[in-house]
Amino acid sequence: MTTKLMGQGVQRVEDQRFLRGQGRYVDDVAVEQDLLHAAVLRSPHAHARILDIDVTDVLDVEGVHLVYTYDDLTGPMAEPLPLLIPHPALTEGRTQYALAKDEVNYVGEAIAFVVAEDRYVAEDAVSKIRVQYEFLPAVVGVDAAREAKNLVHADVPGNVAAKLEQNVGDAVAAIAAAPHRLELDLTIERGACTPMEGRGTVARWDPDLNRLQLWTSTQSSTGVRAAVAVKLGLDLGQVDVITPDVGGGFGVKINHPWPEELLVPMAARALGRTVKFTEDRREHFISSAHERGQVQHIEVGFDDDGRLLGLNVEFWHDHGAYIPYGLIVPIITSTQLLGPYKPQNYRVYFESLYTNTVMVTPYRGAGRPQGCYAMERTMDAIAKYLGKDRAEVRATNFIQPDEFPYDQGLIFQDGRELEYDSGDYPASLVKIKELVGWDEFPAFKAEMAAEGRRVGIGLACYVEGTGVGPYEGAHVHIETTGKVKVATGLTTQGQGHATVFAQLVADELGVKFEDVEVVTGDTRRMPYAVGTFASRAAVMSGSAIHLAAKRAKEKALKIAGEALEADPADLQIVDGVVSVKGSPGSSIDLGTVSVLSNPLRYAFDEASKAATQFSVGDPGKPPVPEDEEPGLEGRDFYSPERATFASGMHAVIVETDPDTAEITILKYAVVHDCGNLINPMIVEGQIHGGVAQGVGGALYERMAYDESGQLLNASFMDYLMPYVTEVPDGIDIDHLETPSPLNPLGIKGAGEAGVIPSAAVFAAAIEDAEDIVITAMPISPSELYALRQSQGLENS
């Protein structure tokens, strides 16, 4: 029998191509020799009224083909970009226009669009556009937004887009009656996704077919397709969106459509030429999206054991100048904050606020790092107050394995009940303590102190909602060669989809792994899909692919049964050959079965033993049976009743330099539960990547705005990304597998796990090393140095 591939660390099939420089990204698309290039004029001001735009100096520039401002937009293109995820609490939703109308609200907002013979001419032309502004006061940061002395949008009172409150029990009363009470005030700053490949779009209009082809670096090809069709007044069937290789997404590319994804095809259709836009790094910093920024206030009541009796959380979320992705980030913070705990009484209230800064959309973790930070800092504060072990306090509050499914009594991001499907948090705690050496650490700390060295240990736990709906689909086609082509509509940005999906298909169909080819993000192959985000690809598309392969297998066995005059239940498929169980001599290749599945066979080879034109078959039956289609293929969709909930725990040991306050990672450990593992190697790769981003977000990365709304560090010279020297040299990883009962594979998502606990776990470790309360993240050596001084502590 063929060895099952699920659960095996199969090498990624994508890597050889990428390592040899053979990746094909949007900027590599060269569909025409006479390609035109686009550039965008962006606002240099955070808040200003546009009085006049003069493009006369541009019109006669040699090589310029087209200039658009808002006045050139008509119909749906002249309307605001879509608010993708409405919510009843989002009473003041505002989105930008493809090109600014009347007013700009952040540095980087698109004002004019130029198409020229090459990018150099386009950039020069952009610099010749003259704009007259009336400057307006900028609102920067949560505190300024809450003061509401100035407004981002004149028609939005108090800069508040939304207010949302959820309650379980009576948290206020429970806290008041609790034996012990604490209050915490916490902040977490903005960061950015910074994928290696920025945004890019290429469009070609075919006047003969009246059809648009669009290549774009996106996490939702089908979403872009729908938006482009509506905005340009095209039928959905007139638009093909192809997502080639994507050099990282991390959330910023799930927002759609970006202005350029509409302006590029609009220009291509108008000019009858292929048009390309590729953003530069500064553009990505100032005009794409950020995430994370929140101010939090927490009140908690607990008993002598540290058991939560009541938890009251209020926070203020900075979503920037516009809110195209709705309230997803703060809703996730407010619900995922609870992690593996059961607080008994819980109240959460948040306000989502406008500021004159780049808009916020989900970034890997998507609100969970902020929630984990709030909850885990609270757990540490309780343990310190009671003089108890931090792990013990957490264990006291865990949901127990026999309590699943566990309903937290809240409404999650998908509008469904926040009900955890499975998990074993006590088992994870045992594993993480062993992995990091938790019980041995006090002796190690004393030993280091004797040498004049400061070390600290931190622990953070989380639960991650994954696999949100509404659906994903898949198409599995067995070719007449016996090869298997798999198509799913979601896109891929380096997660190893071509490998894990091929593993699932090879297992279900009984074919060789190398005979399976996977295509993602091409609306020509799979026109209906949702997208790649929220750790949903394996759960959603994996389940759909499994179901589609099962359909293809059922059809294959039925046809093979007729050919072999055997009961399909007695057949098996091994290495692409269908045979009777116990009689391997009675067999037929899957490729031949595929030939037989089509009455119009065109089988030009001897191996098929089939007619070369068409087969009449049984005169008493139609050539294609009722409720079937020609061809050996299966199509299916998977739509879950609710999300799956992965979980995990991170622990870190850090050393803080007594003189420079430099923070060094000595050990990093992860225990992760994503249900049944498809490919442990790829899961661990996802964890490694997430931890690297988490280190950056906790210790280095922040978007630094001045009071006028200018981004001061819009380059990698100033925005500090961690190098390999700053990321843990080795990450100790252990897995727990508690299968989900909600999907046929028993799996949960894994893509964001590595980054979720980072701010919390580093804050805890640094606090332990320094004996200084850490309430703001990220924290740099200079900030730690200043914190020491503010508390009268020596820096040496």
Can you describe this structure?
- The protein is of the alpha+beta class.
- The chain folds into 3 domains: 31-136 and 199-246 and 253-287, Aldehyde Oxidoreductase, domain 3 (Alpha-Beta Complex); 367-467 and 642-790, Aldehyde Oxidoreductase, domain 4; 469-638, Aldehyde Oxidoreductase, domain 4 (2-Layer Sandwich).
- It contains 19 helices and 31 strands.
- The strands form 8 sheets. Strands 3-5-1-13-10-11-12 form a 7-stranded mixed beta sheet, sandwiched between helices. Strands 7-17-16-15-8-31 form a 6-stranded mixed beta sheet, with helices on both faces.
- A hairpin with a 6-residue loop joins strand 28 (644-656) and strand 29 (663-673).
- The longest helix has 28 residues, at 537-564.
- The mean pLDDT is 94.
